[in-house]
Amino acid sequence: MTSCSEPLTASTLGEHLDLQRRRVEDALAAYLPRPEADPSAGRPERLASAMRYSVLGGGKRLRPVLCLMAAEACGGSWEAAIPAACALELVHTYSLIHDDLPAMDDDDLRRGRPTCHKAYDEATAILAGDGLLTLAFELIAKGVSPDSSALACVRILAEASGPDGMVGGQMADLQAEHRALDQHEEGSLAELEAIHRRKTGALLKAPLQMGAAIARASDSHREALERYGKAVGLAFQIIDDLLDVEGDETKLGKRVGKDSGHGKWTYPRFLGVEGSRTRARQLAHEAVAALAPLEARGERLRDLALALLERDS
Amino acid sequence: MTSCSEPLTASTLGEHLDLQRRRVEDALAAYLPRPEADPSAGRPERLASAMRYSVLGGGKRLRPVLCLMAAEACGGSWEAAIPAACALELVHTYSLIHDDLPAMDDDDLRRGRPTCHKAYDEATAILAGDGLLTLAFELIAKGVSPDSSALACVRILAEASGPDGMVGGQMADLQAEHRALDQHEEGSLAELEAIHRRKTGALLKAPLQMGAAIARASDSHREALERYGKAVGLAFQIIDDLLDVEGDETKLGKRVGKDSGHGKWTYPRFLGVEGSRTRARQLAHEAVAALAPLEARGERLRDLALALLERDS
Predict the structure, then answer these.
(1) Whole-structure pTM value
(2) Strand intervals (E) in chain A
(3) Looking at the domain that runs over A15-310, which CATH code has it been given?
(4) What is the ipTM of this complex?
């Protein structure tokens, strides 16, 4: 086998994703070092521990991997995209910690392990989340260059995860849950999509935008990746809803059937299982089509969009 | 009175601070518009309302005012510093919302009104805080120029408010409170200062650093402002502790005597009231001395350091 970057046979998508995930895991571990035993150090040990527990406890790393892949698809390097990719995962993790809190979704289990507030305590979980969100922006400011790309990443991530994005979507989701439970309100597909677009979609589109910014992609390539991200984000959520109906609890690492028990609005509820699967398939093909301008460089992302349809966890 | 920037008589410090505060209030209100009645808009109405309630409900605006003053002291303009100044206030406000939560300090009153989770609900308060923290970085990314100054501000704010700064300090404070209450541990002045440096000091030093960055100050001026910020931050906290012992509840807008009731570590506890007042006075004079390199432009900040000694709220 040659020692340069041209393997004799192309890796499969699975192998490629494993490679990208390893890069992300190594970087995350480096950004969250083990706590010092010294209590006078800047970061209290328990806080550092809780942050590590939540971030390094597994996860698909879909958002950072999308960011690395987007950068490479635009001719950039994964190394240049690593700080931004990790920032995305820190933001995603903080959102899970806060969503799991008693006052919010009140979950004891996440990825098959006790949630942060159960493993530590609620105050530590609130602060660990706050710390991770803040650290995400620090990583970008210190790690992305040039300045214009770094600022673009700060803007994209802040807009995607803020009160008009992810946080707004979580608020809307909680409100919808109350309306479904307490008022037996039917809801509509349009409302459900408005929630998903913000609660999960924004942080699945942001990686593509950030990867493009880091690779200093052309407007045409950036727009292609945005369209891809929007379609893939929605498809991902539909599959998520389908897995909750049909999925294997062991593989998912969380209880299934939770959604229907709560009267929660989901895609299957509005479109049925088959209708939902059809919609997801449509979106995956939209995503593939969107990447035409990227030509051969878009291949991995195209394969990924189709692979998401087959996920079982 | 002439219509240019040279008044016939110089305004007093009080008038100057009022002017700076008005600039900040106007900008904050513009950054947090009234919620749209349209439920499909990006930001849910209740979330927007809670964010406004917490930010626009009053406050000394010390951090943003320090930022504006630092920029002007380095020959920059307050207009250029406004987005960063407001970002500081959003971060300060988010920290208060989260600190007040039941799992944290569990406070019902703040600035004489119900805390965010009491006025709304706990989930909304958690998300309002998250939203404000995220929005702070958005404001900087979009409002500060050039890019190098904007990135410097992102870095400074993230470091000051993150797990090695404010969040770490809050964690350390909660842990110290448990040790004081449950284990009747005496603590030490060194430990108390390590908590204050992070919990409150970092976000009082950051405004000076950010103002300097925006004004593209020389290293000498930047360092002078950092020394000032560090000294003033500590003096501020000592005065805070003293007000809790000696202060007027109506003026403060919160209960007094809370600290001693909790066995909380404070400056008076370690240095006595007189010793604390002396230490605060020393620090205020250190702050004044630190600004020598700024010459005449440092006058307002020097006056402010001395004025902080006299505060009663």
Answers:
(1) 0.94
(2) 109-110, 113-114
(3) 1.10.600.10
(4) 0.93
